[in-house]
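Memo to structure team: turn this sequence into structure tokens by end of day. - J.P.
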Amino acid sequence: MSTYANKKGFGATLWDYLTTVDHKKIAILYLISGGLFFVIGGLEAMFIRIQLAIPNNDFVSAGFYNEILTMHGTTMIFLAAMPLVFAVMNAVVPLQIGARDVAFPFLNSLGFWLFFFGGVFLNLSWFLGGAPDAGWTSYASLSLHSEGHGIDFYVLGLQISGFGTLIAGINFLVTIINMRAPGMTYMRMPLFTWSTFVVSALILFAFPPLTVGLVLMMFDRMFGANFFDVAAGGNTIIWEHLFWIFGHPEVYILILPAFGIFSEIFATFSRKRLFGYSSMVFATVLIGFLGFMVWAHHMFTTGLGPIANAIFAVATMAIAVPTGIKIFNWIFTMWGGSVKFTVPMLYAVAFIPTFTMGGVTGIMLASAPADYQYHDSYFVVAHFHYVIVGGVVLGLLAGINFYWPKMFGTMLSEKLGQITFWTFLIGFHLTFFIQHFLGLMGMPRRVFTFLDDQGFNTGNMISTVGAFLMAFGVLVMVINIIITSVKNEKVGNDPWGDGRTLEWAIPSPPPFYNFKQLPLVRGLDPYWVEKMEGKKEMTPAEPLGDIHMPNSSILPLTIASGLFIAAFGALYHMDDKTWTLPIMIVGLLVTFGSMFIRSVKDDHGYHIHKEDLMDDKDKGGKA
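Reply from structure team:
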């Protein structure tokens, strides 16, 4: 029996992570891989900003710029933000609801490996003939006529990765519905758990339209179908509908967990119960509901007509209301509180005006006549980066700093954390604030260069300087993580001193079974309730007894790797290469063979005996 706190040889540790079904280790796998893809997407962003630093630049060619632009957006949305969100969900949600793991540990591992292999497959396009070049939205009118295999890598990679996300969403839904500790009613769940619950429902309904669109695109590209080819009777606008029926809820799939993280941080470091808890829950659910009613505001310029435009404009403006409720509740949480400005709290406070600016420009874009002017300009680039970076990335940076001691048992440096915060925040506003004005001055999106006499020189140079500041901030955070890992100074279960929810009631890092005895939840902020009564531990809801835990398994890795192999066979089959069919068959045999082994294998897990738990009383995270 082991935990992720134990010291092992590299080989044993590697095997442990390749076969793990423990949600805490899977959180670390998501964190590492998401961080890696975040760095790759950041490097792509730096290439974009270097190319646009001066007029008539030839740092990269027009075609290569299209590939960089496409891969930057695709990587940051699908391969960086999503896995980092899942990293925090996996690390925190089972602990917050008092569970020993997620409902389906095997599927949790499979979801990660599908995401990972899908991301690797997509990025291999750089080395195998060229990356996708039709933008991260891959509109059919461009992607159908893109030469090479770039778009095929996009279609197959996102399908594999998307299956993993869908599995993870279903898993968290079942976990939160069925595995809450005794006494934890829905209206006692922490806001981060609520946001995970709503996001999981969004994933369940948003990813199938994307999957359908990708399958149709695959048939168009690989088998000569004509779903989206206008010249052959298809309809290219259908791709936009399918993409944005997924794409706009995806914005809330990313931002709602950030809202949940900030809700935990504001309450913790204001030393107050979150203001307006019931209205915050209502606002979270309403945002999820309205998120499916606004997708066509991305399509105001496609000629849907005034009635459709008006309906989607009103819905888009309406979704600002529950977001406004949240912002005022966060402010009122701080009002009169004993506020401590830790690094997570700095991110939380900076988030409010930053995200509000993104919201205000969103309302501007919600007006269809105005959107006709803004739509293909840098104003839109500024808007969605204020939402995604100013909301999601600030939330993830806050969450990683906040939950790092719980995940690893060590505290990141506050001093280095503040350097990261200030350089990243200042760099972000330098980069994207000026882009609003570049857009209003007429600078179009997706252009790889501009002329010297268009008035865009100063704004683009400021934007590039800001991007380098952001990159410096991320570099300092990497240094912070390395130094903290080398020092390895352990902290207690509640290192911030003001923990309110169940995750702060157990050791840091948690033992692999999380809770010896399931806790009894006696109110909102259950750990705070116990602390106010002078107790150092949660009141148990059960006597000490044997604990059942799932076995590790290599099968999730082999199932995902089989699809990875088969995808190459599918991609190259149209080149009339004789080896593609055997490759595809081998990959599918690996996948379905692994699934068959799983179905017939007698795997009932193992038991930790009560006597071992009693011996383990003072060992922290070790067993």
